[in-house]
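For this section, I looked closely at a protein sequence along with its fold in token form, which I now present.
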Amino acid sequence: MPIPKSRRGGAYITVLVMTMLIIMLAAAALSITAVSRRITAHYSDYVGLFDLAVAGNEQALFLLRQAAQPQYENAYTRAWQRAVDENIIVLEYHNGGLRLQYNSNWRPHDPLCSRRQFERIFAEEGMHDLRPVMRDIFSPVHSDYRLAWGIEASIEAGEFAITDSYGAVTNISAINTNNRINLHTYIHRYNGDTPGVQFQVNASIIWSAAGQRQIILDAYTIAMLILAGVEFPIMPGNGENILLFLDEFALTMVESHRR
């Protein structure tokens, strides 16, 4: 029995649509396979590079901490004196002693947060002492600094040995405006004598609170602070001292990320 032309046309369209769908699925499969093959082919170029780049940034942090340590006490003393002179010392009672007033809703340059203001002043003084000694531990490059380093790792298995070599550069930039040190470690793996694909990890280093020190305020020190305009929420009895809790600061790495 002959098939009506309308049905022949519908069947033709159905076959055509199904053919197009099959072609599209095949193209998608080939595309996914090609991407997977490219990722697999370059996997050995990237494996382990992130951890090594982070280690390069950590190495710079360690050297900066070592350089800052001898100047720390002088920077701390100057920061305290500045805080007194600039009248940002606001004290509150805390755990049987005193501490700088803390405001959890603090914003930059908020005069109501004495603790954060002191941290800002210390960061300025700490960076002031740190910048001149950075040229002693890093290589100056224009207004920045650089630390070039490399590593070679070997694995032996019986009569066979696998050796990987890596070359890296850590760039250090001390920002004047926000007392922040920016780091950029670039690293690559050698394919023979040829450098492979370059990998980069960025980070920042800031001064942040990392502990507390306890200072005993005797009657003479209290009298000097009162003359400087500092108000005390509690006053000691005759011959008594007051315990003051102040933040200690340390160089701390933040915002480590791949670029």
Notes: Residues 5-9, 34-43 have pLDDT under 50 and may be disordered.
